[in-house]
Write a structure and sequence with these properties.
Blueprint lengths: L7 E2 L3 E2 H24 L6 H26 L2 H30 L13 H66 L17
Antiparallel strand pairs: 1-2
Helix pairs in contact: 1-2, 1-4, 2-3, 3-4
């Protein structure tokens, strides 16, 4: 694939290498579902669904890696669509867990109830940690959206390249057909030879 300006990931590496790294990182990230299933803790149905989804995602990401390796446009199109689905699914699960943790989970320490100074210190530290955690989660979601953009851009590049190749092949076939149907000497269409007359 030709390399030109705008065909890089993070402005540093070729886009195909970037997509390769993004896909491998995605597979490693989804391995949490495998370990979640191995923990045999199915008390939270939402978490169990995420574990199962992660296992399915490992298969799809691996298939996308195969499509990337073989430059198979059809496989990579499905992978790109799934990557967008994964991006939104990850956004929803991040919001769900963040709200559950920061809003609905009680972080108070009953043993500090008698010491207002330590309780105030605990609340201050927890507030600071919450702000840092939320900032990190937002940055990670933005990176995921950027990775999705990179995967989509690469798909568009290989799709355009594949379409150009198909168009060129069709033009060559059409030119061969037209050249075969015309007489090279005078440009007139070839006619079938007349049978010899006695």
């Amino acid at each position: 694939m030709p390399s030109s300006k705008g065909r890089h990931c993070c402005g540093l590496i070729p886009i195909k290498t970037g997509v390769l790294l993004i896909t491998i990182f995605g597979i490693l990230n989804k391995l949490s579902g495998f370990y979640g299933i191995l923990s045999f803790d199915f008390s939270d149905i939402f978490t169990t669904i995420i574990y199962i989804y992660s296992l399915v995602a490992i298969v799809v990401f691996s298939y996308g890696l195969y499509g990337l390796y073989t430059d198979n446009v059809r496989i990579f199109r499905w992978y790109t669509m799934f990557f967008w689905l994964d991006c939104f699914f990850s956004l929803i699960t991040t919001i769900w867990f963040a709200v559950t943790w920061f809003v609905f989970t009680d972080h108070s320490l009953p043993e500090l109830a008698d010491d207002p100074e330590k309780l105030a210190e605990h609340d201050r530290v927890f507030k600071m940690e919450s702000q840092v955690s939320i900032a990190v989660l937002v940055i990670l979601r933005l990176i995921h959206f950027y990775f999705t953009y990179v995967v989509t851009r690469y798909y568009k590049l290989i799709n355009r390249l594949n379409y150009s190749r198909l168009s060129t092949n069709e033009n060559i076939d059409l030119e061969d057909t037209l050249a075969g149907s015309r007489n090279v000497n005078n440009g007139e269409p070839l006619t079938s030879p007349k049978p010899a007359q006695d």
